[in-house]
Design a protein that fits this description.
Layout: H1 6-9, H2 15-27, H3 33-45, H4 50-63, H5 65-70
Length: about 70
């Protein structure tokens, strides 16, 4: 199984926009501001390129206790 992350790659130039898009896609926009700020900082800190930035944000969001409770 593969997941096409291509639509998110162009959003890495604006980490808050990337995080908002993932929030809407994966948690219906319900992620709290504190979690979103952590994700933005993680994306900004990732130096492995756009794909790695998207993967990092998705991994952190999906592994968060908040996501696991709501989904």
């Amino acid at each position: 199984t593969t997941v096409d992350l291509t639509p998110y790659l162009s959003l890495t130039s604006s980490p808050p926009t990337l995080v908002d898009a993932l929030d809407l896609t994966l948690t219906c926009g319900l992620a709290p501001a504190g979690l979103k700020q952590i994700l933005v900082l993680a994306v900004q800190s990732e130096t492995g390129g756009p794909l790695r930035q998207v993967q990092t944000a998705i991994y952190l969001l999906l592994s968060s206790g908040y996501y696991n409770v709501w989904n």
